[in-house]
Amino acid sequence: MCGIVAYSGTKSATPILLNGLRKLEYRGYDSAGIAIHSDNTIHIYKEEGKVANLIDSIGDYENDAVHQQCHVGIAHTRWATHGPPTKENAHPHGAGFEEPGGSRIALVHNGIIENYRALKSRLEAEGKVFLSDTDSEVLSHLIEFYYTDDLAKAISTALKEVQGTFGIACIAKDQPDMLVVARRGSPIVIGLGEDQTIVASDASAIISHTRQAVYLDDNDVAIIRGGKIDIKTLDAKPVQRDTADIDWSEGAAEKGGYEHYMLKEIFEQPTAIRNSIRGRIDLDRGTSVLAGLGLDSREIVDLQRLLIVGCGTSMNAGLVGEYAIEDFAGMLSEVEQAAEFRYRNPIVGSKDIVLAISQSGETADTLAAVREAQEKGALVAGLVNVVGSTIARETGRGIYLHAGPEISVASTKAFTCQVSVLLLIALKFARSRRLSREQGIKIAEEINSLPELVERVLEQNDAIAKIAEDFVKFDNMFYIGRGYLFPVALEGALKIKEISYIHAEAYHAAELKHGPIALLEESMPVVALLNAGPGMEKTLGNVEECRARKSPVLGVISEGDEDARAACDWVIEVPQSSQFIATVTSTVALQLFSYHVARLRGCPIDQPRNLAKSVTVE
Ligand code: AGP
To answer: CATH number of the domain at 252-448, please?
Structure first.
């Protein structure tokens, strides 16, 4: 969603704020702005479009006295939720500008104020003048309405009236060194420094300054003056929050020489998977070691069902997990789209474990599903990449992905790392049931070989790029797969949709003849997951049906499978393996395929239109 950066300290705030926005631009990027406190005035600058537009509009801040004197400021990149992406709707939003001398306060906000209409009507009746269509501006006016001489108090009073989510940073004209931040449902990370503090909506904007961070809990308010931080609840009760180490290297959050973050993250997958499984495989006992779940075998064996909730790519990874849990452990498992789970009054209880999968750990629908599962007494755990994220903290137990920062909006290494860990969970659950040590060792060895197998797929990058050339002209595609490979079809279709804007649909291979086959023709290519294993022969039959209707077919096949090769117009070979392993190798092949098609179509790739990296609104 939106990106927030804020600063209070001894340096000039402007360059710190602008550099922070550049690091966060992947989160939301249809407008941007900063507000700085200088010579007892709040100066607000905002522009539609990229951060570069904002920087151009600010001009030579390094030689401008106003910017040299500012030591407190807030900044924002926006992903529109209320109101189109315009300069007026960009943050920061001022308030109290009726009086001479400009705004009394300025605010940046990430989240959704659900009762903003009622609040806006009340404030308009009080004579407040609104300049934008946003819910966020309502919050700035509400705070200003309560503000006399204690900014934190005014913010707490206002936030108690708010229904919805917020991550905010706020400054006041008559409080030259003060910055106040607060959160409910939208992340706020506070980076601790010597005589200075930098705040952001995620760690990537902080790590060039500090690795020591404090993560606010919901309804926390932090009053910041330089390096001094006081955290209170909305009821002004002082609270202490733990300090955490941000373990990302700064380079890890940069492109590392690749043209796009997405390509970098695709090629990082052998390392990312190694980090995800490191210390978690016991090859001697043929099991996995997942201390974060906080469950011993007796507790695991008592669980009747493993439910998985997530969105998008995380949900697709969860489907592989569902198949593996049932295949390895003979245990009931099912996946639900998180919002569906949350709103359908799910049948879930104390004999269930609900696993929330989320790369960002901030997806609103998944967070809501976590809270609903907890409400109904289920054991809840997280499979999350971002340390200290809301879902990680609210589940209280789970497994960190350790995939490193995933910057590109299209999720790649998160998927393959999520699947790798889900296979470990399935192995763990299976060994507490009927899976023998020998069977466990075999599975553990295959999981352990994933990094090398992925490296072999990546070696085909040039060959896959060549195949992609033939797909640039298409506007529609089908992806088909069976069993473990059906989630791969879903993820492959999602990936190419997201970044190349080609309309792609995924079907269970057997489903084609129940309707979709009507669309098959020369201009409707089909990607078929044909890895050796159960059902492959049947999918091969489906491929024949496609080609009989002139649909060209790209097959993802097992190395050396000449029958599969002969059945397709193009093939991408992945190493021979069990199908649960092929879910990872085949997905990597389709990630590269999607990337090159999008690149050849001249698409932006890392920041696709309409998308944001973390959807923190429902
Ligand atoms: C996947 O490429 C998308 N970026 C999107 O579907 C994403 O997977 C989804 O929004 C869930 O995000 P999360 O894993 O951070 O919860």
So the answer is: 3.40.50.10490
